[in-house]
Amino acid sequence: MEYEEPKFFHVMQYAAAADGDVIDMVSGNPDWEPPAALRNALREYADLPPADFQYPPSDGLRELREAIAERRGVDPERVVVTNGTGEANYLAMARALDRGAGDEALLMDPVYPYYPGKTHLLGGEPMLVPTERDGGLDVDAVREAASEDTALVVLNTPNNPTGAVYDLDAVREVVGVAEAVDAVVVVDEVYDRFDLAGSFESALTLDSDRVIVTSGFSKSMAITGLRVGYGVFPEAHVDAANTRHMLVNVTGARPSQYAVHHALAETPPDYYAESRELLAERVDAFTDALDAAGAEYSRPEGAFYVLARFDGFPGTMANVKRLVDEAGVAGMPGEAFGTARDEWIRFALVTPRATEAAERLADYFADGAPETPADPR
After folding, report:
1. How far apart, in whole angstroms, are the C-alpha atoms of residue 315 and residue 320?
2. Phi, psi for residue 212 in degrees, rounded to 5
3. How far apart (Å, rounded) are the C-alpha atoms in residues 185 and 1?
4. How far apart are CA 15 and CA 238, in angstroms?
5. How far apart are CA 349 and CA 19, in angstroms?
6. Parallel, antiparallel or unpaired: strands 211-216 and 229-232
7. How many helices (H) and strands (E) does the chain have?
8. Which residues contact 199 (CB under 8 A, 6 or more apart)?
9. At 307, is the secondary structure helix, strand, or coil?
10. Is 118 helix (H, G, I), strand (E, B) or coil?
């Protein structure tokens, strides 16, 4: 089986090779400082004895799993520490598709592109389900799409790319639909610290054996390179998930787990509040400039992405490359996120140049969409 390279890498490579100055609004790499306690813990780690440079337990350092469990209100035995939230999603989706309950995965559209990619990797069939205009869950659409072939439903809240925060009652209804067709619901909550509207409620509060929640620290602690994520599995799925984790990775990295554990214990709430305030300011400045550009956009309730649509300038890969070359701004084509927003372009606000990028877009679209170049043939 052949797998398509994620479009993220293609756009980033194109922008990096561009001649002029290009503002990267493609990657989701936070640009602010990680917690001070995390830096200190990494320094301390260098002086630990040789035993601390060997394999940690496959399911993660016990003290880290206990800290995660305390924060999420679950038993530590349900927590599996993974190599980023990406692996946690892979393990969770595998559990749903390995049960012999069908091979269909319902994915909300717009969709984070790695979900359909992982579905194919695991031998499943993705089905895109439309969401509400604001990106919220359309429970009726989920109910209509669900069938006896449905083994998996994937939700992401706060959402990438729409910024929507799913209403917990809607999530509860989706779990009910899943129960009726013998499906598992995987809820990716990696952006839970970036609840800009104050409305996020975790699916773990539903206390359902149909729900697997995944998350991690790449975004919330600005440490995408340290690769520490986790899954909270119902008891019936923990052993199988950890076995697959062991076979694929053996275990995660001990130094990064050690550092994250210390950061969880010692980082004050103000750290997370300051990053939310920073993002809220960027949302205001960016959307003000989009207003000046005459763009339609979704104002995020959470996470740190803005979807924008410029009249007469659909979100194709070709137009994204034009923005790189002609406006000096790199975004992601809407067509990369399914079918629902293929006219749109996604911008990540994790750059100190977000306002400058928006001003470039406003200037570029000041007189409407630029003319499409004639076909040189």
Report:
1. 7
2. -115, 125
3. 26
4. 41
5. 23
6. antiparallel
7. 12, 13
8. 165, 167, 301
9. strand
10. helix
- Closest by CA position to 113, among listed 25, 216, 217, 7: 7
Strands (E) located in 189-317: 211-216, 229-232, 296-298, 305-309
Burial category of 4 from C-beta neighbours within 10 Å (exposed 0-12, middle 13-18, buried 19 and up): exposed
Which residues, in sequence order, are bridge partners of residue 109? 130
Indicate the helix (H) or strand (E) that contains 107. Answer: strand 104-109
Structure tokens at 230: 């986790």
Local confidence pLDDT in tens for the 377 residues of the chain: 555 667 777 788 888 888 889 999 998 999 999 999 999 999 999 999 999 999 999 999 999 999 999 999 999 999 999 999 999 999 999 999 999 999 999 999 999 999 999 999 999 999 999 999 999 999 999 999 999 999 999 999 999 999 999 999 999 999 999 999 999 999 999 999 999 999 999 999 998 999 999 999 999 999 999 999 999 999 999 999 999 999 999 999 999 999 999 999 999 999 999 999 999 999 999 999 999 888 999 899 999 999 999 999 999 999 999 999 999 999 999 999 999 998 999 999 999 999 999 999 999 998 666 766 544 43
Tokens describing residue 349: 């606000």
* Strand partners of residue 187: 155, 213
Angle between helices 62-72 and 254-266 (to 10 degrees): 40
Beta bridge partners of 241: none
| Residues facing 329 on adjacent strands | 23
Q: Is the dihedral of CA 77, 83, 88, 90 positive or negative?
A: negative
Q: Of 366, 370, 334, which is closest to residue 112 (Cα–Cα)?
A: 334
Phi, psi dihedrals of residue 286, rounded to the nearest 5°: -70, -45
Single-letter residue type at 99: R
Beta bridge mates, 296: 309
Closest to 320 measured CA to CA, from 19, 26, 44, 20: 26
Report pTM: 0.94
